[in-house]
């Protein structure tokens, strides 16, 4: 920061240009964590919204031993990044649920909380910070875009975050989430075919038709309503 250093009249530049140097996260330790079970390593990244009024309120809660909840990271609406649990450790953010037939998502994932009430858009500063953080985590643990999921994806009917205002398409375009299929859907849309596609996309939790449809729509067509349509199948078809 500030003045460059001069050595024998030659300016010494820092090794990393400041324009691409990500600001270091603010370490704010949470006591709410344990070891990952069965030697598991992170293969998923689960995105959440805090559903609280401020990042400070969320930070307090995520670090309060009474509440027994946590996440590895919290990103404020202004882009501030807090790091609360080491990535090696098992944070307590996912709870009961399933993704791609796998349970104990806490042992398999990194949790990122986004400061948002669930009722307003996510700020660009916050999205940019997320887009800066995701590739770093994905690189460290060899997590593919397919492994970046929402809490509602793995806990359908029980959780609804990061919610209908989260811009999944933006992440997909940046290869930070699995791309959606764009093939023409079938002309009719039988529920059993929808289920098979949803299951192969990762939505494996055992829930009723309506709950499954709501969860898949939250991810791909958040403002869709009414009965199953062929458009609900399209995002889960193979990408052409
Ligand atoms: Zn959540």
From TrEMBL:
Statement: the UniProt record of this protein carries the keyword Mitochondrion: no
Catalytic activity of the protein: Hydrolyzes the link between N-acetylmuramoyl residues and L-amino acid residues in certain cell-wall glycopeptides
GO molecular function list: N-acetylmuramoyl-L-alanine amidase activity
GO biological process, one term: peptidoglycan turnover
Cited PANTHER family: N-ACETYLMURAMOYL-L-ALANINE AMIDASE AMID (PTHR30417)
A Pfam family it matches: Amidase_2
Residues in N-acetylmuramoyl-L-alanine amidase domain copies: 30-163
Gene name of this polypeptide: amiD
Keywords linked to the UniProt accession: Cell wall biogenesis/degradation, Hydrolase
Presence of keyword Hydrolase: yes
Annotated protein name in UniProt: N-acetylmuramoyl-L-alanine amidase
């Amino acid at each position: 920061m500030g003045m460059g250093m001069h050595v024998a009249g030659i300016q010494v530049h820092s090794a990393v240009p400041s324009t691409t140097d990500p600001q270091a996260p603010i370490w704010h330790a949470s006591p709410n964590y344990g070891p990952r079970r069965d030697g598991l390593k992170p293969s998923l990244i689960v995105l959440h919204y805090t559903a609280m009024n401020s990042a400070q309120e969320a930070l307090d809660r995520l670090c309060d031993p009474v509440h027994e909840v946590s996440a590895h990271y919290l990103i404020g609406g202004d882009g501030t990044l807090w790091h609360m649990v080491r990535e090696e450790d098992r944070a307590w953010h996912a709870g009961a649920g399933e993704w791609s037939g796998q349970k104990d998502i806490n042992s398999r994932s990194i949790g990122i909380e986004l400061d948002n009430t669930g009722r307003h858009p996510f700020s660009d500063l916050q999205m940019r910070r997320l887009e800066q953080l995701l590739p770093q985590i994905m690189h460290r643990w060899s997590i593919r875009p397919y492994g970046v999921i929402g809490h509602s994806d793995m806990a359908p009917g029980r959780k609804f975050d990061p919610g209908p205002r989260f811009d999944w398409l933006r992440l997909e375009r940046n290869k930070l989430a699995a791309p959606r299929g764009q093939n023409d859907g079938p002309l009719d849309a039988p529920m059993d075919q929808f289920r098979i596609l949803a299951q192969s996309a990762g939505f494996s939790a055992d829930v009723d038709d309506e709950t499954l449809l709501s969860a898949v729509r939250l991810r791909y067509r958040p403002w869709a309503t009414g009965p199953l349509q062929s458009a609900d199948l399209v995002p889960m078809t193979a990408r052409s």
